[in-house]
Task: inverse folding
């Protein structure tokens, strides 16, 4: 394969990109990578394994190389401004509808980060400042951001978590999550997923407040409102994607 027109002059970088380009069309065995890229077998193997360590490449159930989750995380970061522009007014509507503080969370490594919030104006409230880093093993937003991850990442994150694999299975089925005093005593929350290209979960929209108001089953009160807010954000994001293609 002649890549001279796209050569950067940095050999190892060009070879690495040829591996990623090859995987863009789907899973590939090492032999297929060698055939597609024209690289020597040891070189293709070394680069693919190095990319795997950085989560740019992973493997499917048949052991073939596929594009990894890190690429999706980087693409999310690229689209963050659009996500925030779409989500911010919806968070305000959700706050006004439920009377509770509303937040938007994204996963960054082993934590989740509050990237947008609309706070309840007065009375008892759960305030989560924008930029706050919260754990991935507690809270309804953590359940959402974890539920669609690969099994190994789920297994690691469940260590010490108050929820279980069965909980996450239920979250995937109903597409919303609730928590009561998981992240903080006296606080309850309800969350739903925001999806990006290919249906990948890229964020979680949430409401949170005192158990005194939300009760021990906060989903009964607010699951419909939160999932409707998530659908509004999803529709706007996917509509914008279609306009830019």
Result:
């Amino acid at each position: 394969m002649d890549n001279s027109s796209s050569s950067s002059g940095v050999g190892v970088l060009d070879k690495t990109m040829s591996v990623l380009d090859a995987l863009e069309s789907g899973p590939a065995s090492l032999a297929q990578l060698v055939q597609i890229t024209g690289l020597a077998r040891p070189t293709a193997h070394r680069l693919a394994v190095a990319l795997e360590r950085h989560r740019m490449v992973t493997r499917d159930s048949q052991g073939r190389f596929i594009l990894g989750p890190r690429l999706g995380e980087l693409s999310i970061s690229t689209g963050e401004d659009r996500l925030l522009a779409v989500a911010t007014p919806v968070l305000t509507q959700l706050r006004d509808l439920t009377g509770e503080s509303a937040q938007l969370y994204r996963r960054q490594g082993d934590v989740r980060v509050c990237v947008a919030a609309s706070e309840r104006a007065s009375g008892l409230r759960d305030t989560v400042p924008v930029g706050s880093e919260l754990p991935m093993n507690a809270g309804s937003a953590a359940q959402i951001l974890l539920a669609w991850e690969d099994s190994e990442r789920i297994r690691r994150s469940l260590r010490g978590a108050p929820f279980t694999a069965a909980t996450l299975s239920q979250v995937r089925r109903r597409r919303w999550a609730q928590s009561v005093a998981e992240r903080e005593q006296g606080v309850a929350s309800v969350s739903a997923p925001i999806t990006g290209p290919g249906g990948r979960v890229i964020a979680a929209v949430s409401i949170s407040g005192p158990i005194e108001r939300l009760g021990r089953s906060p989903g009964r009160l607010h699951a419909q409102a939160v999932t409707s807010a998530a659908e509004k954000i999803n529709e706007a994001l996917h509509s914008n994607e279609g306009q830019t293609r």
About this structure: Strands lie at 57-59, 65-67, 101-108, 111-118, 133-135, 177-180, 187-195, 201-210. Confidence is low (pLDDT under 50) at residues 1-5.
